[in-house]
Design a protein that fits this description.
Layout: H1 5-9, E1 16-20, H2 24-29, E2 36-37, E3 45-51, H3 55-67, E4 69-78, H4 91-100
Parallel strand pairs: 1-2, 1-3, 3-4
Length: about 120
């Protein structure tokens, strides 16, 4: 049996969740279970998914998002493939920044390339 993208990403049912800058088609493609979807960044979250184009926005917003993440939660970052939508993000820059910001466990999935913000 093939796992859905949300299963591969470890998104659990009833997870308190938020999407930042997410295109609708990307959210649909993840095939979410029933989650507790929030519209405002208040309190702590089990799952945060951040869609971003520039390193500047990534570095400005990522620490804020991280501060709202539960210790057992996951924060996924999605961006365009290099060069599309004038992005200056790539796998190497995002992984380096994640480590610098204190993430010890980093998981990479093709799902990180879903969004088209």
């Amino acid at each position: 049996m093939t796992k859905s993208i949300s299963e591969k990403m470890g998104i659990e049912q009833n997870a308190r969740s938020i999407f930042i800058n997410a295109p609708e088609d990307a959210v649909k493609a993840i095939e979410l279970p029933d989650i507790n979807l929030q519209k405002k960044l208040t309190g702590d979250f089990d799952y945060i998914h951040f869609f971003v184009i520039s390193q500047k926005d990534f570095h400005n917003e990522f620490p804020i998002l991280k501060s709202h993440l539960k210790k057992t939660g996951s924060l996924w970052v999605s961006w365009q493939k290099s060069g599309k939508n004038n992005t200056d993000l790539n796998m190497k820059s995002v992984l380096k920044s994640d480590k610098e910001m204190g993430f010890l466990k980093i998981k990479v999935s093709a799902a990180t390339l879903l969004g088209q913000p």
